[in-house]
What does this fold into?
Amino acid sequence: MNFNIKNSVYWIGKIDWELRKFHGDEYSAHRGSTYNSYLVKEEKVALIDTVWAPFTKEFVENLASMIDLNKIDYVIANHAESDHSGALPELMRHIPETPVYCTKNGVKSLTGHYHKDWNFNVVKTGDRLSLGQKELVFVEAPMLHWPDSMFCYLTGDNILFSNDAFGQHYASEFMFNDLVDQAELFAEGIKYYANILTPFSSMVAQKIKEVLSLNLPLDIICPSHGVIWRDKPEQIVEQYMRWADDYQENQITIIYDTMWNGTRVMAEHIAKGIGLSDKAVNVKLYNLAKTDKNDVIAEVFKSKAILVGSPTINKGILTSVAAILEEIRGLKFKNKKAAAFGCYGWSGESVKMIAENLTTAGFDAVDEGLKVMWNPDDAGIESCVEYGKGLPVKLA
Amino acid sequence: MDKYVCGTCGYVYNPARGDQDAGIEPGINFGDLPDDWVCPVCGVTRDEFEKEE
It folds into this structure.
Protein backbone atom coordinates (compact mmCIF):
# COMPACT_ATOMS: atom_id res chain seq x y z
CA MET A 1 0.00 0.00 0.00
CA ASN A 2 1.12 3.53 -0.71
CA PHE A 3 -0.51 6.91 -1.26
CA ASN A 4 0.40 10.45 -2.20
CA ILE A 5 0.68 13.03 0.57
CA LYS A 6 1.63 16.14 -1.37
CA ASN A 7 3.31 16.69 -4.75
CA SER A 8 6.26 14.28 -4.91
CA VAL A 9 5.90 12.94 -1.37
CA TYR A 10 4.44 9.48 -0.82
CA TRP A 11 3.62 7.38 2.23
CA ILE A 12 4.92 3.89 1.91
CA GLY A 13 4.64 1.85 5.05
CA LYS A 14 2.63 -0.71 6.91
CA ILE A 15 -0.65 -0.40 8.80
CA ASP A 16 -0.34 -3.05 11.49
CA TRP A 17 -3.85 -3.73 12.77
CA GLU A 18 -2.70 -6.85 14.61
CA LEU A 19 -0.10 -5.23 16.85
CA ARG A 20 -1.03 -5.40 20.54
CA LYS A 21 2.39 -5.30 22.24
CA PHE A 22 5.41 -3.22 21.30
CA HIS A 23 9.00 -2.81 22.55
CA GLY A 24 8.96 -6.52 23.22
CA ASP A 25 5.92 -6.73 25.48
CA GLU A 26 6.59 -3.42 27.25
CA TYR A 27 4.14 -1.13 25.49
CA SER A 28 0.49 -2.00 24.85
CA ALA A 29 -0.93 -1.03 21.47
CA HIS A 30 -4.68 -1.52 21.87
CA ARG A 31 -5.37 0.16 18.55
CA GLY A 32 -2.49 -1.33 16.55
CA SER A 33 0.07 0.95 14.93
CA THR A 34 1.58 2.00 11.66
CA TYR A 35 5.20 2.13 10.53
CA ASN A 36 5.55 5.14 8.27
CA SER A 37 8.18 5.33 5.58
CA TYR A 38 8.22 8.21 3.13
CA LEU A 39 9.42 8.39 -0.46
CA VAL A 40 10.30 11.80 -1.90
CA LYS A 41 10.56 11.67 -5.70
CA GLU A 42 12.19 14.92 -6.74
CA GLU A 43 15.04 15.15 -9.29
CA LYS A 44 16.86 13.18 -6.64
CA VAL A 45 14.96 10.48 -4.81
CA ALA A 46 15.10 10.12 -1.04
CA LEU A 47 13.64 7.38 1.12
CA ILE A 48 12.96 8.40 4.73
CA ASP A 49 12.98 5.48 7.19
CA THR A 50 11.60 2.00 6.55
CA VAL A 51 9.34 -0.37 8.52
CA TRP A 52 9.62 -2.97 11.27
CA ALA A 53 11.58 -6.08 10.31
CA PRO A 54 8.62 -8.55 10.10
CA PHE A 55 7.23 -6.50 7.20
CA THR A 56 10.51 -6.28 5.27
CA LYS A 57 9.49 -8.42 2.32
CA GLU A 58 6.23 -6.63 1.56
CA PHE A 59 7.89 -3.25 2.14
CA VAL A 60 10.70 -3.83 -0.33
CA GLU A 61 8.28 -5.28 -2.89
CA ASN A 62 5.97 -2.31 -2.42
CA LEU A 63 8.88 0.09 -2.81
CA ALA A 64 10.09 -1.70 -5.93
CA SER A 65 6.59 -1.37 -7.42
CA MET A 66 6.86 2.40 -7.03
CA ILE A 67 10.41 2.95 -8.17
CA ASP A 68 13.43 1.10 -9.50
CA LEU A 69 15.38 0.58 -6.27
CA ASN A 70 18.56 1.69 -8.05
CA LYS A 71 16.99 5.09 -8.61
CA ILE A 72 16.91 5.80 -4.86
CA ASP A 73 19.69 8.35 -4.40
CA TYR A 74 19.57 8.77 -0.64
CA VAL A 75 18.35 6.75 2.32
CA ILE A 76 17.55 8.85 5.39
CA ALA A 77 17.59 6.99 8.71
CA ASN A 78 15.98 9.37 11.19
CA HIS A 79 16.11 6.74 13.92
CA ALA A 80 17.85 3.39 14.21
CA GLU A 81 15.29 1.55 16.32
CA SER A 82 14.21 -1.54 14.42
CA ASP A 83 10.59 -0.52 13.92
CA HIS A 84 11.97 2.09 11.51
CA SER A 85 15.20 0.52 10.31
CA GLY A 86 14.07 -3.11 10.26
CA ALA A 87 13.85 -3.34 6.48
CA LEU A 88 17.19 -1.57 5.90
CA PRO A 89 19.39 -4.70 5.77
CA GLU A 90 17.27 -6.20 2.98
CA LEU A 91 16.94 -2.91 1.13
CA MET A 92 20.68 -2.24 1.37
CA ARG A 93 21.36 -5.72 0.04
CA HIS A 94 19.76 -4.49 -3.21
CA ILE A 95 21.46 -1.06 -3.21
CA PRO A 96 24.62 -1.49 -1.13
CA GLU A 97 26.38 1.67 -2.33
CA THR A 98 23.50 4.08 -1.69
CA PRO A 99 24.42 6.67 0.94
CA VAL A 100 22.64 6.42 4.30
CA TYR A 101 22.16 9.78 6.02
CA CYS A 102 21.94 9.76 9.81
CA THR A 103 23.40 11.37 12.91
CA LYS A 104 26.76 10.44 14.43
CA ASN A 105 24.88 8.45 17.06
CA GLY A 106 22.80 6.93 14.27
CA VAL A 107 25.91 5.29 12.85
CA LYS A 108 26.61 3.76 16.27
CA SER A 109 23.05 2.50 16.67
CA LEU A 110 22.66 1.16 13.13
CA THR A 111 26.05 -0.53 13.26
CA GLY A 112 25.22 -1.86 16.70
CA HIS A 113 22.03 -3.41 15.39
CA TYR A 114 23.06 -4.70 12.00
CA HIS A 115 26.88 -4.85 11.98
CA LYS A 116 27.04 -3.58 8.40
CA ASP A 117 29.51 -1.10 6.98
CA TRP A 118 27.01 0.90 4.92
CA ASN A 119 27.90 4.12 3.14
CA PHE A 120 27.09 6.34 6.12
CA ASN A 121 26.91 10.12 5.74
CA VAL A 122 26.82 11.85 9.12
CA VAL A 123 24.67 14.98 9.30
CA LYS A 124 24.24 17.68 11.92
CA THR A 125 21.54 20.22 12.67
CA GLY A 126 21.26 22.69 9.79
CA ASP A 127 22.92 20.47 7.19
CA ARG A 128 21.07 20.44 3.88
CA LEU A 129 20.74 17.83 1.16
CA SER A 130 19.65 19.03 -2.27
CA LEU A 131 16.98 17.02 -4.07
CA GLY A 132 16.99 19.46 -7.03
CA GLN A 133 14.43 22.25 -6.58
CA LYS A 134 13.85 21.28 -2.96
CA GLU A 135 16.11 20.45 -0.05
CA LEU A 136 16.03 18.28 3.02
CA VAL A 137 17.14 20.13 6.16
CA PHE A 138 18.32 17.97 9.04
CA VAL A 139 17.67 18.65 12.73
CA GLU A 140 19.29 16.45 15.36
CA ALA A 141 16.81 15.55 18.10
CA PRO A 142 18.78 13.59 20.69
CA MET A 143 16.66 11.77 23.30
CA LEU A 144 13.45 12.33 21.37
CA HIS A 145 13.64 9.55 22.13
CA TRP A 146 17.04 7.90 21.52
CA PRO A 147 20.46 9.56 21.23
CA ASP A 148 20.40 9.08 17.46
CA SER A 149 16.93 10.54 16.81
CA MET A 150 16.67 13.12 14.05
CA PHE A 151 14.03 15.13 12.19
CA CYS A 152 14.25 16.29 8.60
CA TYR A 153 12.32 19.00 6.83
CA LEU A 154 11.44 19.25 3.15
CA THR A 155 11.58 22.78 1.81
CA GLY A 156 9.01 23.86 -0.77
CA ASP A 157 6.39 21.42 0.53
CA ASN A 158 7.00 22.50 4.15
CA ILE A 159 6.85 19.00 5.58
CA LEU A 160 8.50 18.01 8.85
CA PHE A 161 9.42 14.33 9.09
CA SER A 162 9.53 14.08 12.86
CA ASN A 163 10.10 10.35 13.31
CA ASP A 164 8.81 9.21 16.74
CA ALA A 165 7.96 12.73 17.95
CA PHE A 166 4.27 13.55 17.46
CA GLY A 167 3.54 9.87 16.76
CA GLN A 168 0.87 7.55 18.09
CA HIS A 169 0.39 3.80 18.10
CA TYR A 170 -2.84 4.07 16.19
CA ALA A 171 -3.81 2.04 13.15
CA SER A 172 -6.20 3.71 10.74
CA GLU A 173 -6.93 3.29 7.05
CA PHE A 174 -7.57 7.04 6.94
CA MET A 175 -3.97 7.96 7.87
CA PHE A 176 -4.69 11.69 8.25
CA ASN A 177 -5.45 13.45 11.53
CA ASP A 178 -8.55 15.27 10.28
CA LEU A 179 -10.27 12.02 9.24
CA VAL A 180 -9.96 9.97 12.42
CA ASP A 181 -11.85 9.89 15.73
CA GLN A 182 -10.35 12.82 17.67
CA ALA A 183 -10.84 11.25 21.10
CA GLU A 184 -9.00 8.09 20.01
CA LEU A 185 -6.22 10.16 18.48
CA PHE A 186 -5.81 12.25 21.63
CA ALA A 187 -5.83 9.16 23.86
CA GLU A 188 -3.09 7.47 21.83
CA GLY A 189 -1.08 10.71 21.53
CA ILE A 190 -1.00 11.38 25.27
CA LYS A 191 -0.34 7.72 26.10
CA TYR A 192 2.62 7.76 23.72
CA TYR A 193 4.02 10.94 25.23
CA ALA A 194 3.45 9.79 28.82
CA ASN A 195 5.09 6.40 28.37
CA ILE A 196 7.95 7.31 26.06
CA LEU A 197 8.79 11.01 26.19
CA THR A 198 8.11 12.04 29.80
CA PRO A 199 11.74 11.62 30.97
CA PHE A 200 12.91 13.93 28.18
CA SER A 201 10.34 16.70 28.60
CA SER A 202 12.96 19.40 29.11
CA MET A 203 14.57 18.40 25.82
CA VAL A 204 11.19 18.26 24.07
CA ALA A 205 10.49 21.87 25.01
CA GLN A 206 14.01 22.95 24.06
CA LYS A 207 13.87 21.17 20.68
CA ILE A 208 10.47 22.57 19.77
CA LYS A 209 11.65 26.10 20.58
CA GLU A 210 14.75 25.48 18.46
CA VAL A 211 12.70 24.26 15.48
CA LEU A 212 10.21 27.14 15.81
CA SER A 213 13.11 29.63 15.91
CA LEU A 214 14.12 28.48 12.42
CA ASN A 215 10.86 30.09 11.20
CA LEU A 216 10.25 27.30 8.74
CA PRO A 217 6.70 27.28 7.38
CA LEU A 218 4.94 24.12 8.53
CA ASP A 219 2.17 22.59 6.42
CA ILE A 220 2.38 18.92 7.35
CA ILE A 221 4.01 16.81 10.07
CA CYS A 222 4.79 13.25 9.04
CA PRO A 223 5.60 11.14 12.13
CA SER A 224 6.84 7.57 11.94
CA HIS A 225 3.84 6.05 13.74
CA GLY A 226 0.16 6.74 13.35
CA VAL A 227 -1.62 9.44 11.43
CA ILE A 228 -0.12 12.34 9.49
CA TRP A 229 -0.86 15.81 10.86
CA ARG A 230 -2.04 17.75 7.80
CA ASP A 231 -4.89 19.68 9.47
CA LYS A 232 -3.48 22.36 11.79
CA PRO A 233 -0.22 20.50 12.38
CA GLU A 234 0.72 23.14 14.95
CA GLN A 235 -1.93 21.68 17.27
CA ILE A 236 0.23 18.68 18.18
CA VAL A 237 3.30 20.92 18.58
CA GLU A 238 1.36 23.13 20.99
CA GLN A 239 0.05 20.05 22.77
CA TYR A 240 3.62 18.75 23.19
CA MET A 241 4.63 22.09 24.71
CA ARG A 242 1.83 21.72 27.26
CA TRP A 243 2.70 18.09 27.99
CA ALA A 244 6.39 18.94 28.34
CA ASP A 245 5.59 21.64 30.92
CA ASP A 246 5.00 19.26 33.88
CA TYR A 247 1.48 18.65 32.59
CA GLN A 248 -1.32 17.89 35.02
CA GLU A 249 -5.07 17.96 35.26
CA ASN A 250 -7.24 18.21 38.35
CA GLN A 251 -7.00 14.47 38.85
CA ILE A 252 -5.97 12.16 41.69
CA THR A 253 -5.25 8.61 40.63
CA ILE A 254 -5.41 5.80 43.16
CA ILE A 255 -3.43 2.76 42.05
CA TYR A 256 -3.24 -0.38 44.14
CA ASP A 257 -3.16 -4.12 44.25
CA THR A 258 -4.95 -6.26 46.78
CA MET A 259 -4.98 -9.88 47.97
CA TRP A 260 -8.17 -10.33 50.01
CA ASN A 261 -9.75 -6.96 49.18
CA GLY A 262 -8.52 -5.09 52.29
CA THR A 263 -6.41 -2.63 50.28
CA ARG A 264 -9.20 -2.32 47.68
CA VAL A 265 -11.66 -1.37 50.43
CA MET A 266 -9.14 1.20 51.67
CA ALA A 267 -8.76 2.64 48.13
CA GLU A 268 -12.51 2.98 47.67
CA HIS A 269 -13.06 4.68 51.00
CA ILE A 270 -10.13 7.04 50.60
CA ALA A 271 -11.71 7.98 47.25
CA LYS A 272 -15.03 8.53 49.01
CA GLY A 273 -13.35 10.82 51.54
CA ILE A 274 -11.63 12.87 48.83
CA GLY A 275 -14.98 13.29 47.08
CA LEU A 276 -16.65 14.48 50.28
CA SER A 277 -14.26 17.39 50.65
CA ASP A 278 -13.50 18.16 46.98
CA LYS A 279 -16.32 17.85 44.46
CA ALA A 280 -14.25 19.10 41.53
CA VAL A 281 -11.30 16.73 41.55
CA ASN A 282 -11.44 13.71 39.23
CA VAL A 283 -10.60 10.63 41.32
CA LYS A 284 -9.79 7.45 39.40
CA LEU A 285 -9.03 3.99 40.77
CA TYR A 286 -7.03 1.27 39.07
CA ASN A 287 -6.20 -2.20 40.30
CA LEU A 288 -2.67 -2.64 38.96
CA ALA A 289 -2.98 -6.40 38.59
CA LYS A 290 -6.02 -5.98 36.35
CA THR A 291 -5.11 -2.86 34.38
CA ASP A 292 -2.71 -2.37 31.51
CA LYS A 293 0.34 -0.61 32.94
CA ASN A 294 0.79 1.79 30.04
CA ASP A 295 -2.80 2.95 30.45
CA VAL A 296 -2.06 3.49 34.15
CA ILE A 297 1.03 5.53 33.27
CA ALA A 298 -1.07 7.76 31.02
CA GLU A 299 -3.39 8.37 34.01
CA VAL A 300 -0.43 9.08 36.31
CA PHE A 301 0.83 11.55 33.69
CA LYS A 302 -2.48 13.43 33.84
CA SER A 303 -2.60 13.48 37.66
CA LYS A 304 -1.61 16.17 40.11
CA ALA A 305 -1.21 13.46 42.73
CA ILE A 306 -1.22 9.70 43.03
CA LEU A 307 -1.98 7.36 45.89
CA VAL A 308 -0.26 4.00 45.74
CA GLY A 309 -1.48 1.07 47.79
CA SER A 310 -0.33 -2.45 48.56
CA PRO A 311 -0.88 -4.89 51.37
CA THR A 312 2.23 -6.15 53.09
CA ILE A 313 3.50 -9.51 51.89
CA ASN A 314 6.81 -11.08 52.89
CA LYS A 315 7.79 -7.80 54.54
CA GLY A 316 7.29 -6.02 51.23
CA ILE A 317 4.81 -5.15 48.47
CA LEU A 318 2.94 -6.96 45.73
CA THR A 319 4.81 -7.39 42.45
CA SER A 320 2.40 -5.37 40.31
CA VAL A 321 2.97 -2.40 42.64
CA ALA A 322 6.73 -2.91 42.56
CA ALA A 323 6.61 -2.97 38.75
CA ILE A 324 4.67 0.27 38.39
CA LEU A 325 6.95 1.99 40.92
CA GLU A 326 9.94 1.04 38.78
CA GLU A 327 8.21 2.33 35.65
CA ILE A 328 7.34 5.57 37.46
CA ARG A 329 10.92 5.99 38.71
CA GLY A 330 12.32 5.76 35.20
CA LEU A 331 9.84 8.22 33.74
CA LYS A 332 10.97 11.06 36.04
CA PHE A 333 7.60 12.71 36.58
CA LYS A 334 7.87 16.22 37.95
CA ASN A 335 5.72 18.43 40.16
CA LYS A 336 3.44 15.66 41.43
CA LYS A 337 2.43 14.76 44.97
CA ALA A 338 1.86 11.32 46.37
CA ALA A 339 0.94 9.18 49.35
CA ALA A 340 0.96 5.48 50.20
CA PHE A 341 -1.56 3.19 51.84
CA GLY A 342 -2.15 -0.48 52.51
CA CYS A 343 -3.47 -3.04 54.92
CA TYR A 344 -1.42 -5.61 56.80
CA GLY A 345 -1.71 -8.47 59.23
CA TRP A 346 1.38 -8.31 61.45
CA SER A 347 4.53 -6.50 60.28
CA GLY A 348 3.19 -3.78 57.88
CA GLU A 349 6.24 -2.64 55.89
CA SER A 350 4.42 -1.91 52.62
CA VAL A 351 3.35 1.68 53.21
CA LYS A 352 6.79 2.90 54.25
CA MET A 353 8.38 1.05 51.35
CA ILE A 354 6.02 2.60 48.80
CA ALA A 355 6.48 6.08 50.26
CA GLU A 356 10.27 5.73 50.03
CA ASN A 357 10.01 4.58 46.41
CA LEU A 358 7.78 7.50 45.53
CA THR A 359 10.19 9.97 47.13
CA THR A 360 13.10 8.41 45.24
CA ALA A 361 11.06 8.77 42.04
CA GLY A 362 10.78 12.52 42.63
CA PHE A 363 7.25 12.69 44.01
CA ASP A 364 6.48 14.91 46.98
CA ALA A 365 5.18 12.45 49.59
CA VAL A 366 2.70 14.52 51.58
CA ASP A 367 2.55 12.35 54.72
CA GLU A 368 3.54 8.97 56.12
CA GLY A 369 0.59 7.27 54.50
CA LEU A 370 -2.21 5.18 55.95
CA LYS A 371 -1.94 1.65 57.37
CA VAL A 372 -4.91 -0.42 58.49
CA MET A 373 -4.70 -3.84 60.13
CA TRP A 374 -6.38 -6.88 58.55
CA ASN A 375 -9.53 -6.31 56.56
CA PRO A 376 -10.72 -2.82 57.59
CA ASP A 377 -13.53 -2.90 60.16
CA ASP A 378 -15.93 0.00 60.66
CA ALA A 379 -13.28 2.01 62.49
CA GLY A 380 -10.71 1.19 59.78
CA ILE A 381 -13.11 2.25 57.05
CA GLU A 382 -13.84 5.46 58.88
CA SER A 383 -10.12 6.16 59.15
CA CYS A 384 -9.84 5.79 55.35
CA VAL A 385 -12.72 8.20 54.72
CA GLU A 386 -11.24 10.71 57.17
CA TYR A 387 -7.81 10.33 55.59
CA GLY A 388 -9.33 10.93 52.16
CA LYS A 389 -11.19 14.00 53.41
CA GLY A 390 -7.90 15.52 54.51
CA LEU A 391 -6.05 14.85 51.25
CA PRO A 392 -7.33 17.71 49.05
CA VAL A 393 -5.77 20.24 51.43
CA LYS A 394 -2.47 18.36 51.58
CA LEU A 395 -2.41 17.90 47.81
CA ALA A 396 -3.33 21.48 46.96
CA MET B 1 34.36 27.56 34.13
CA ASP B 2 33.90 25.50 30.95
CA LYS B 3 30.69 23.79 29.97
CA TYR B 4 30.81 20.15 28.87
CA VAL B 5 28.46 18.42 26.42
CA CYS B 6 27.31 14.80 26.60
CA GLY B 7 28.25 13.07 23.33
CA THR B 8 25.31 10.71 23.64
CA CYS B 9 22.33 12.91 24.45
CA GLY B 10 23.51 16.51 24.14
CA TYR B 11 22.99 17.43 27.82
CA VAL B 12 25.22 20.35 28.78
CA TYR B 13 26.90 20.38 32.21
CA ASN B 14 27.03 24.00 33.28
CA PRO B 15 29.24 24.54 36.36
CA ALA B 16 27.27 27.69 37.18
CA ARG B 17 24.20 25.52 37.69
CA GLY B 18 25.70 22.26 38.94
CA ASP B 19 23.47 19.18 38.99
CA GLN B 20 21.06 19.62 41.88
CA ASP B 21 19.42 16.20 41.50
CA ALA B 22 22.80 14.55 42.03
CA GLY B 23 23.71 16.87 44.89
CA ILE B 24 26.23 18.86 42.84
CA GLU B 25 26.13 22.47 43.98
CA PRO B 26 26.66 25.39 41.59
CA GLY B 27 30.32 26.29 41.19
CA ILE B 28 31.72 22.77 40.76
CA ASN B 29 33.94 22.46 37.69
CA PHE B 30 33.38 19.50 35.38
CA GLY B 31 36.85 18.19 36.27
CA ASP B 32 35.96 18.19 39.97
CA LEU B 33 32.80 16.12 39.63
CA PRO B 34 32.90 12.83 41.55
CA ASP B 35 34.15 9.81 39.61
CA ASP B 36 30.77 8.12 39.82
CA TRP B 37 28.86 11.11 38.45
CA VAL B 38 26.84 10.23 35.34
CA CYS B 39 24.87 12.21 32.78
CA PRO B 40 21.55 13.13 34.47
CA VAL B 41 19.65 12.67 31.21
CA CYS B 42 20.97 9.50 29.61
CA GLY B 43 23.18 7.96 32.30
CA VAL B 44 26.51 7.62 30.45
CA THR B 45 29.78 8.13 32.31
CA ARG B 46 31.91 11.29 32.37
CA ASP B 47 34.28 10.14 29.64
CA GLU B 48 31.49 10.56 27.06
CA PHE B 49 31.61 14.33 27.62
CA GLU B 50 33.54 16.89 25.59
CA LYS B 51 34.25 20.53 26.28
CA GLU B 52 31.69 22.83 24.63
CA GLU B 53 33.21 24.83 21.82
Observations:
- The two ends of chain B are 13 Å apart (CA to CA).
- Chain B has no helices and three strands.
- Chain B has a mean pLDDT of 94.
- The longest strand of chain B covers residues 4-6.
